[in-house]
Specification:
With 507 residues, the chain is an alpha/beta fold. It has 14 helices and eleven strands. The strands form three sheets. A seven-stranded mixed β-sheet has the order 4-3-2-5-8-6-9, sandwiched between helices. It is elongated, with a radius of gyration of 28 Å. It starts with 17 loop residues before the first strand and ends in a 46-residue tail after the last strand.
């Protein structure tokens, strides 16, 4: 899992404004490998649907993943005949590599992709991208597992799909319903920040992207789709399933160990109601209380098991001390990660030392209460002893929570907010601006004052329509910017990362 720094925090979600410009609003990518038969029907059908139903300018991008048949020739012919179609070729296979490369270099504010077989009904395309255009959501996915979806496919694929999503829910706590549907969209500003964190370049790419987006607190919109299985699909199910399980293990291990820091993406927006300052309402108090109680209950059970084990070979006082010490260390570690959301190894030793101090204060409170009771009466009743211990432990628990919250794990989001404010002045995607400027023949520095490279979007272009005349698509030729400086719309993409062209990747 990659831990390199992302380009910066995301801006607040805003509805993309309508206006007249040459930049397409939507860029639909079709990744293909040896699809000479299906490519042309797919592009023609998709283009006809968008021309009839999509109210803004659009682009269809064919991403050829090192095809060895006549797919490149078919793509070139479609590009020459249809103004809204463009294509490029990668010399290495991998759907994730193709999507990352095209999305990182695209100038469209909304980026989408779909499989070439068009198994998903295209009527779901506008509902897919509408929440992204409005600013309501950050990513959108088609779901075949929604109750209102209508799906036709064999029992084998149905079983594999549902099993895989159950694995994601059980291992990575994923809440989205369908990770594998080839029908997804993302806002460009979100992609610029999120894609550098995604390592996979094959079929697990979009699953990893969704898991990281969800863990970072981004909003994922799901659209029920009508889906008909393609019996001639070239996907190798066994190899894909194996690679996906390896990806689940890699991502789960990175998230569990804290080696992937999502703190720079968490709370990225200024419009989240949970970020508002409210008088007399501490941030996150309810969630922390629930987590603290759950950890406390589990720690008590752990303590009892330890005490029973130690008691078999030592005295009660030593067994009690050892069990309390070990359970206190485990309690501090669990509260650090689960209750207060501290990730990574930084400060772990200091937190444990402070946790032992808190434990010592609680132990002194309970022991002092018993000592006071024994001083007050020489032979207190057993019920009285229990009542004193319960009251003392309750007080110690409240004190431990308050010390954990205020001293051991204080809220550092104010400092993070200041860091985010500084980062917001940095252009959000050096990779994108460099690749685009290189393609256009300009130096990247020319764009530093333009708003599209500062986390904002140009106005949404409208398709011009003259009364009684068909809409003129020529002025929106795919790959052309508003100033019409692009000639050949076949893009020579730069690799986002060096390993994107690793010949060892067999996909």
């Amino acid at each position: 899992m990659r831990t390199d720094s992302s380009p910066g925090n995301l801006p607040a979600r805003e509805h993309l404004p309508a206006g007249n410009a040459g930049t397409p609003v939507l860029d639909v990518v079709i990744p293909v490998y040896n699809e000479e038969k299906d490519l042309q029907p797919c592009v023609l059908r998709l283009h006809d649907h968008l021309a009839r139903t999509f109210p803004y300018a659009f682009r269809i991008t064919i991403a050829d993943n090192a095809s060895t048949d006549t797919t490149p020739q078919v793509a070139a012919r479609l590009e020459a005949e249809i103004p809204e179609v463009t294509s490029f070729r990668l010399e290495q296979k991998g759907r994730g590599r193709a999507l990352r490369t095209v999305w990182s270099a695209s100038d469209a504010p909304i980026l989408a992709y779909m499989d070439v077989d068009l198994s998903t009904d295209l009527n779901a395309l506008l509902p897919l991208v509408a929440p992204l255009i409005s600013g309501h959501s950050d990513l959108a996915i088609g779901s075949r597992l929604s109750r209102s979806s209508r799906v036709v496919r064999g029992a084998k694929r149905e079983f594999i799909s549902r099993t895989y999503n159950l694995i994601l829910r059980g291992s990575l706590q994923a809440r989205f319903s369908d990770a594998q549907c080839g029908f997804k969209a993302i806002r460009r500003d979100v992609a610029q920040v999120l894609l550098p964190l995604v390592e996979d370049s094959g079929w697990f790419f979009d699953t990893e992207m969704l898991v990281l987006a969800e863990r970072a607190g981004l909003r994922i919109h799901e659209v029920p789709v009508d889906w008909v299985d393609d019996p001639d699909s070239t996907v190798h199910i066994a190899k894909t399933a194996t690679d996906d399980l390896k990806g689940v293990w890699r991502v789960g291990r990175a998230l569990a160990t804290g080696s992937l820091s999502l703190d720079r993406l968490a709370r990225p927006f200024g419009d989240d109601p949970r970020d508002r300052e409210l008088d007399d309402v501490p941030k996150g108090l309810a969630r922390q209380l629930v987590g603290f109680c759950v950890v406390g209950g589990l720690s008590t059970l752990f303590y009892l098991l330890l005490y029973s084990g130690f008691r078999s070979f030592t005295g009660s006082q030593i067994a009690n001390a050892l069990a309390l010490l070990v359970s206190a260390v485990a309690n501090t570690a669990a509260n650090r990660r689960l209750t207060f959301g501290v990730r990574g190894r930084g400060g772990a030793v200091r937190h444990q030392a402070q946790g032992l101090v808190v434990f010592g204060i609680g132990l002194a409170l309970t022991s002092g209460s018993l000592a006071a009771l024994n001083a007050a009466t020489s032979s207190p009743a057993h019920a009285t002893e229990l009542a004193v211990l319960i009251a003392a432990n309750l007080a110690a628990t409240v004190l431990r929570f308050l010390l954990f919250r205020a001293w051991v794990f204080p809220d550092r989001r104010d400092a993070d907010a200041e860091s985010s404010a500084v980062a917001s002045h940095v252009p959000s995607s050096p990779t994108y601006s460099t690749a685009l400027a290189h393609h256009q023949g300009h130096h990247p520095g020319q764009y530093q004052d333009q708003h599209q490279f500062q986390g904002q979007h140009p106005p949404l272009p409208q398709r011009p329509e003259a009364p009684g005349a068909p809409y003129d698509t020529a002025q929106f030729r795919a790959g052309e910017a508003a100033d019409r400086t692009w000639g050949d719309s076949t893009m020579q993409m730069q690799a986002v990362r060096p390993h994107d062209h690793d010949p060892r990747n067999a996909r």
